[in-house]
Design a protein that fits this description.
heterodimer, A: 403 residues, mainly alpha, Cytochrome-c3 Hydrogenase, chain B, three-stranded antiparallel sheet, globular, B: 161 residues, alpha/beta, Beta Polymerase, domain 2, five-stranded mixed sheet, two-stranded parallel ribbon, 3 helices, 19% helix, elongated
Chain lengths: 403, 161
């Protein structure tokens, strides 16, 4: 078997004679994601870095053009699989806006609740993974416990731990099960207790501070120039947050702060995420207070499947069900860009419809991908040992980055 | 965020009337359609005049039957005005070359590489158009409408049987 290497690194040919070129990844025990970093080292210092992604490319956009709008939903889940809810709701909103659908009140509140709930899980995963790579095994296990409680709880709601396929165009797959909200509050209390321990273990920890403070520092202008959004941008002190700036779902009704950092280093990125978890916990509780009775899906024959009971007893409902499943929903021609504040930053869907039941074009503006495009600027000038903490603080998720 | 001056569609339209072929609004977002030669002046103007400092996204749409065949679609964000804007630019298949925005925004580097991978559009001036989501030796541009979805180009050959 004769396989050629998948990329030719820019650095092979042009490295300084006295420097060493090392290859990190794409499958490396200390990078939680398939990414390749080719670094030119002068001693321990990274002189230049070439970040290469694409190892998880599955042709999401090509597949989307060949599937009906509902059948795209499972694919969307597999973008950022640590917070699949957020992806699904952003995608659904793009389609719903083209269709001119107004969601039900209960659906809006549940979606907002799940967005924030999933954000907790995503941030917890990011912090856990990046500190584990610095050797903080206890903190990792604490956070993974929290994450697992949340995933098991979402499993109760949706039947899956990570890739939920819970959103539907015009609503949700099903309402909250009995007792779900009781367990939710238990998990929130548990999460708060464990977060306190994480703060205690890390905030003033000499080793942690030495590894993260003043490492991979950037200015707000630098972050904007490289297209950074989300906690990565906010770590520099810019309070840019789509939930505040162009509120969607129930965010206009929620009372929350946008935490920002001071100097945009790895420590700030850790701290911004921790503060955002606190805000998210408060927002989940606010959403529980806003919940009112009512249907979770719109009553719109263009998109909503008829009740199962009716499908088995009435011929019209059976035909309706058959048409929606086999032909799919028909979206009027048009184009739209919808972006949501996902845990990693601005996740945008650019959707072009030609009036059929499949997207003509569905492009994902993936925050992870843009972040990887600028990450070399945060690696260069620091030590090779800083590569892994910096990479961890960016929270690159392969599924979202490579699509 | 409060206290930020909203930017009216008219203000953008007036400012760039000479650079824009057609303008419209799509779900509250200004859409400016332009010709390739006006891209750099328009982007420079948007950035310097209205603080569109965040280059969000670039992608292409393939209209196989149409001439010019491609539309290049850009999205920008202005923090000062809390406003997003979309630029649309037709690109012919015979000469799919557009100027790069890497001189204006660092984020253009990766995103242009992706569009180059997927649609075969050249970004003149972007010195690094190596494959990013694909790999060296990949033949064709998978998001073009005439690239069949079932075509496979494995890097490592499949094992027999």
């Amino acid at each position: 078997m004769n396989a050629s290497p998948p990329i030719s690194a820019h650095l092979d040919r042009s490295a300084d004679g006295g420097n060493v070129v090392v290859n990190i990844g794409p499958s490396h025990p200390a990078t939680h994601g398939t990414i390749q970093i080719v670094a030119e080292l002068d001693g321990e210092t990274v002189k230049r870095a070439d970040v290469h992604c694409g190892f998880l490319h599955r042709g999401f956009e090509k597949e989307a053009e060949h599937h009906t709008y509902h059948k795209v939903i499972p694919y969307v889940d597999r973008l950022n699989y640590c917070s699949a809810m957020n992806n699904g709701f952003a995608y659904a909103e793009a389609v719903e806006k083209l269709l001119g659908i107004e969601l039900t009140r209960r659906c809006i509140v549940i979606r907002t609740l799940l967005c924030e709930y999933n954000r907790i899980a995503d941030h917890v995963t990011c912090v856990a993974a990046s500190i584990m790579e610095m050797g903080a095994m206890t903190a990792f296990l604490y956070l993974m416990t929290v994450r697992d409680y949340i995933f098991e709880h979402l499993n109760h709601l949706t039947g899956a731990r990570l890739t939920y396929s819970y959103v539907r165009i015009g609503g949700l797959a099903r309402d909250l099960p009995e007792g779900w909200l009781t367990r939710l509050e238990e998990i929130l209390v548990f999460t708060e207790r464990y977060l306190e321990r994480i703060h205690g273990l890390l905030d003033h920890n000499r080793i942690f501070i030495d590894r993260t403070r003043d490492v991979a520092v950037m200015t707000p202008e630098h972050a904007l120039n490289w297209g950074f959004t989300g906690p990565t941008l906010r770590s520099t002190g810019i309070a840019l947050d789509l939930r505040k700036d162009s509120p969607y779902l129930a965010y206009p009704e929620l009372d929350f702060e946008v935490p920002v950092g001071i100097k945009g280093d790895n420590y700030d990125r850790y701290y911004v995420r921790m503060c955002e978890i606190d805000e998210s916990i408060a927002m989940v509780r606010e959403c529980v207070g806003l919940l009112s009775d009512g249907p979770v899906s719109v009553d719109d024959p263009r998109v909503t499947l008829p009740e199962k009971e009716a499908v088995y007893t009435e011929i019209e409902a059976l035909i309706h069900h058959f048409k929606l499943v086999s032909q799919g929903i028909v979206v009027p021609p048009g184009e739209i860009y919808v972006s949501h504040e996902t845990p990693n930053g601005e996740l945008g869907f650019y959707l072009v419809s030609d009036g059929t039941s499949r997207p003509y074009k569905l492009h994902v503006r993936a925050p992870s991908f843009v972040h990887m495009g600028g990450m070399h600027t945060l690696l260069e000038g620091y030590e090779v040992a800083d590569v892994v903490p910096t990479f961890g603080s960016m929270n690159m998720v392969g599924g979202e980055c490579d699509r | 965020m409060t206290g930020r001056a909203p930017l009216s569609f008219d203000a953008i339209e007036r400012e760039f009337a000479s650079l824009v072929e057609r303008s419209s609004q799509s779900f509250g977002m200004p859409v400016l359609e332009l010709r390739v030669e006006n891209l750099l002046p328009l982007v420079t103007g948007l950035r310097d005049r209205f603080d569109f400092a965040l280059f969000l996204d670039v992608t292409a749409v393939d209209y196989l039957e149409r001439s010019p065949r491609f539309d290049l679609v850009y999205h920008f964000y202005s923090r000062r005005h809390n406003q997003r804007v979309r630029l649309k630019m037709p690109v012919p298949a015979e000469r799919p070359v557009v100027p790069t925005l890497t001189g204006h925004y660092g984020s253009a580097r990766y995103m242009e590489r992706e569009v180059h991978d997927m649609y075969g559009i050249e970004f003149a001036g972007n010195g690094d158009l190596r494959p990013i989501l694909l790999y060296d030796g990949f033949i064709g541009h998978p998001l073009r409408k005439d690239y069949p979805i079932e075509r496979e180009q494995p890097v490592v050959p499949y094992r027999a049987g």
